[in-house]
Design brief:
This protein has helices spanning 17-24, 28-32, 40-55, 61-70, 77-87, 163-176, 188-191, 193-201, 218-235, 240-256, 268-273, and strands at 123-132, 137-145, 151-157, 181-184, 205-208. By secondary structure, it is α/β, with parallel strands linked by helices. It folds into 3 domains: 2-32, no CATH class; 40-87; 123-273, Ribonuclease H-like superfamily/Ribonuclease H (Nucleotidyltransferase, domain 5). It has a 5-stranded mixed beta sheet, sandwiched between helices. A hairpin with a 4-residue loop joins strand 1 (123-132) and strand 2. Helix 4 (61-70) crosses helix 5 (77-87). The longest helix has 18 residues, at 218-235. It is globular, with a radius of gyration of 20 Å. The N and C termini lie far apart (50 Å).
């Protein structure tokens, strides 16, 4: 339940940390707990691996190891494989035995191939990514409107669990109502019964990328690239709170300030609201 730690403000003069923990339903020890994490050398390596994966999402552990060695890093494939697992990096290239599924996790067909997306809240998508920090790492989930590219909600966690993903989903539905179709990849968070059950409960049609087809969710993949190069890599967040504030500021910039060429210079928020482009030169 790591996302709830971000709701607590230790500098708040009105409510003590004990009271805040009680209100959000976590033990005080959970707020103060900080995982030991990876050694500094591994964190630096993971930052390089993250950038490589943005450029080459088809890299498996073998190709990732070769690329790192070409860059002067002395690493073995076993170490790279373990770090990729920690980071949640999976090669998009098809692999043997891809038909194996986790028990109880149903995989749904991809519904967007012949679907014309013509209005906001017709189709949403979501994805999970790894965020490197100065002294650790986090995981970020985002819910995006496919038509306008607006980020409707997002959440951070220190673990790759399902809870903070479902929380972000519930927040988006509460703010905007349910979409007609929701598309994700086949990650365990999105094939879980907690996630698909929430979608089904709201009558949302469930769509999932084909195995090895990262381009099926291309808009949110572009979001990750922009976020990391324009914000995360430049700032090197020190802790959860700093990352939450920094990502939040960038998301507001992306939604409300950053013009999008696909909408004639409008921002994602303007496209989502149906607002015409403002002509600042007039």
């Amino acid at each position: 339940m790591d996302w709830r730690r971000g709701l607590i403000d230790s500098q708040d003069d009105r409510l003590s940390v004990v009271r805040q923990c009680a209100l959000v339903g976590i033990a005080r020890s959970s707020f103060y707990y900080r995982p030991s994490g990876e050694p500094a050398e591994n964190l630096r390596l993971m930052r390089v691996m993250d950038a490589l994966y943005l450029d080459c999402p088809w890299y498996g552990s073998r190709q990732m190891t070769r690329a790192l060695r070409r860059g002067g890093h002395r690493v073995g494939r076993k170490r790279v494989r373990r770090l990729m697992r920690v980071m949640g990096l999976r090669s998009v290239a098809p692999r043997p035995n891809t038909s194996r599924r986790a028990p109880g996790h149903r995989v749904y067909p991809y519904l967007l191939r012949d679907l014309a997306v013509r209005w906001p809240n017709q189709v949403w998508c979501a994805d999970l990514t790894y965020l490197p920090m100065a002294h650790g790492f986090l995981y970020l989930v985002a819910i995006m409107d496919w038509y306008s590219r607006k980020v409707l909600s997002w959440g951070l966690s220190t673990t790759q669990d399902t809870v903070f993903c479902v929380h972000a989903l519930a927040e988006a539905i509460e703010c905007y109502g349910p979409p007609e179709v929701f598309n994700t990849d086949q990650g365990s968070q999105f094939t879980s019964t907690a996630w698909t059950g929430e979608l089904s409960a709201h009558g949302i049609r469930i769509s999932m990328d084909g195995k090895g087809q990262w381009s099926d969710n291309v808009f949110i993949e572009r979001l990750w690239r922009s976020l990391k190069y324009e914000c995360v890599y430049l700032q090197a967040f020190a802790d959860f709170r700093e990352a939450r504030d920094g990502v939040g500021a960038w998301m507001r910039y992306y939604n409300h300030v950053r013009p999008h060429s696909a909408f004639g210079g409008r921002t994602p928020a303007e496209a989502h609201a149906g607002v015409q482009r403002l002509d600042w030169a007039a």
